[in-house]
Structure formats: C-alpha cells, structure tokens
Amino acid sequence: MSSAAPFVASLDAIQSALPQDKSSLLDAISEGFVRFSAGDVTVANVSHLKFDARGSGEAGDCCIKSGYVRGAGRWVVKVASGWPNNAALGMSTSQGAMFVFSQRTGALEAVLADSGYLTDLRTAVAALVCARALAPEGGKVAAVVGTGVVATLVAQMLPSILGLGARLLVASRSPEAAHRFVSAREAEGGWSTVEVVADAAAAAARADILVTCTPATAPLVSALREAQVGQLVVALGADSAGKRELGPDVLRGAAVVLADSKTQCLSFGECSSAVADGAIQADAVIELGTYLNDGGARVAAGRSIVVDLTGVAVQDVVIASIVLEVLQSAKA
C-alpha cells in the first residue's frame, strides 16, 4: 500500500495559517523550551554549511536542524540558509524549507516551502518569550541592533509585550538602512517613538531590553549599562562558529547567563566565546527552559540577564506543527 503524496505548502499558505495574535506562538515556543530542558525533546547535532564566492554560486551559509518532541505526532528537518547578495537580485536573503515527517510511520507528511520565514519568525518569537518573562517591570525602552528580517519581526511584535509608551532605538552599520527601518516602524505604529542611534554601544547604554540580530563576527556591544539599573540582553546572531555580537564583559557582568541549549551555546554561541575568554565558567550557564520552568527572577535593579539564543530544533518542530495542523484542517 503506497503512502499519500506529501502536502507542499507555499509561503503564502504558510503565512495565512499563522495566528494573527502571536501570544499563542509565544506560549507554544516557551513550552517547547521547557520540554527541551526537561529532556522530552530529542535533537540531532546541528549541521552548518558555508559557501564562498569562489565557487559556482554567491557567498552564503546554511543551517540544518532536526528533532522531535517525545509523544508528539511529528518530527521535523529544517533547512535554513542566508544569502546576503540576494538583496541585489530582489530576493529574500533568507531561504529554506521545513520537512515534516510522521513519528508513527516515518512518512513525509509535508514540505513547508517557507523560504526561511518560519525560522526567522520562531527566532523573533524566542526573543519575545524572553522579553515577556525576563524584562524589567515597567521597562519601556527597547533597542534592536540590526535591520534585517528578524529585527523587523522583533520590532513589530515587541510593543505587544511592552505596552503603551514603549520606545524603540535602532542601531545599524548602515545609516540608510536604519532610517528606512525607522520609517517603516513609524508607519506601522505601535511604538511611542522610534529613533536611530549611532551604534550598538549607544543602544546598549539606554535600553531596558537590547536585542541583537546581526551576523557579526566581532563584538558589537562591549558592556552592559550601569549596574544599578539592570538590563535584559538577548543575542540572536551567534548561531554558528565564528559569529559573535557580545564582548566578554557583557556576560561577565550579568547576574544570570541563559542559553537556549547549553550544548549548542557552549559549542558555537556567545557563551562559547565568553568561556574561551575566561569571562564566565561553563557551569554558570543555565538553560532557558529550566530557568522558565523554575520561575526564575526577571531583570531588577542591579541585576542584568543575558540570553544566548542559537536556535533549537524544538522551535522548528513547534512552529511547523502549528502551521501544518491549520493547513490540514483547511483541506479536510
């Protein structure tokens, strides 16, 4: 007996299947982190491919992640890649797809041809999970470093966490990109004010919540702001070897250092660089899901928290499953 042909979903269909209110996504991704840290999730080692312009194509990089939640119905293999030169071609710099398989039979159920969008979204949602659970009470000043797709998604969703009167600071190596980003956010609304600042250091000096979303290979932020105020720093960019956004003093000065996956973050995340520099000890790093499950304290006066997010396959499993359930229900 032959199995049914896998369902192939386009980017438009995928985006239509996502909930307008992203709070349910935050809940699901947060629960995914908790289950991952509790040992209920199996993930494979992350595979990285880097491409250079000397070959037949343009320079880019690719990340392959896979895993499953025990007792759930599906397992997922995700391929996500970044191609910086695509912008000049009028294409998204993010590309990729998610392949969803049955845990019962191993059959391929669906191909989510998302062009990397679900990876970008679940990455941004992870930053919001941290902001919702860990940001200082009453904190109203957020900053994003970077102006790409993930930074855009963070900036679009963060006002729902911070509430009325929230202010956004934007830092980018390209002043033109920063001003375009500000204009777009002002047109969308949600922020009380949106402002370009000189650089990442200027953003870090003023922000209650700092989110870095760049492919930097050298530190952009060298220190936390004054200790008596406290700050939440969420680093999203160091998702493969050689990438780094935070200097050693940022992690050294934090009261708490969290990692989405200790294995990954101590291998190629911000934590790995800080340990190599002698800024922190590996055993001082706490896994995010454990901290959330234990009701860990949020940022307070004199207490800063740094979160190293390298991206975990459980996020892909969660978001792919949500999308596929909606699409399959619509087909029924």
Biggest β-sheet: strands ordered side by side in the sheet = 10-9-8-11-12-15-13-14
CATH class of the largest domain: Alpha Beta
CATH H level, superfamily name of the largest domain: NAD(P)-binding Rossmann-like Domain
The CATH topology of the largest domain, please? Rossmann fold
Helix content: 25-40%
Describe the sheet with the most strands.
Answer: 8 strands, parallel
What is the overall shape?
A: globular
| Beginning-to-end CA distance, first to last residue | 22 Å
SSE order, as H and E? EHHEEEEEEHEHHEHEHEEHEHHEHEH
| Annotation, overall tally of beta strands | 15
Helical stretch count? 12
What number of domains? 2
Report the sheet-strand fraction. Answer: 15-25%
Looking at the overall shape, the CATH architecture of the largest domain is: 3-Layer(aba) Sandwich
Radius of gyration: 19 Å
pLDDT averaged residue by residue: 93
Structural class: alpha/beta
Given as residue ranges, the uncertain stretches (5+ residues, pLDDT < 50) are none
What attributes does this structure have?
332 residues, alpha/beta, ornithine cyclodeaminase, domain 1, Rossmann fold, eight-stranded parallel β-sheet, seven-stranded mixed β-sheet, 12 helices, 15 strands, 23% strand, globular, ODC_N
Structure, described:
By secondary structure, the protein is α/β, with parallel strands linked by helices. It folds into two domains: 7-118 and 314-331, ornithine cyclodeaminase, domain 1 (2-Layer Sandwich); 128-312, 3-Layer(aba) Sandwich (Rossmann fold), CATH 3.40.50. Helix content is 36%, strand content 23%. The chain has twelve helices and 15 strands. Strands 10-9-8-11-12-15-13-14 form an eight-stranded parallel beta sheet, with helices on both faces. Strands 1, 2, 3, 4, 5, 6 and 7 form a seven-stranded mixed beta sheet that branches. α6 (175-188) links the parallel β9 (167-171) and β10 (193-196). α3 (117-134) packs across α4, α3 crosses α12 and α9 packs across α10. The model has no long low-confidence stretch (mean pLDDT 93).
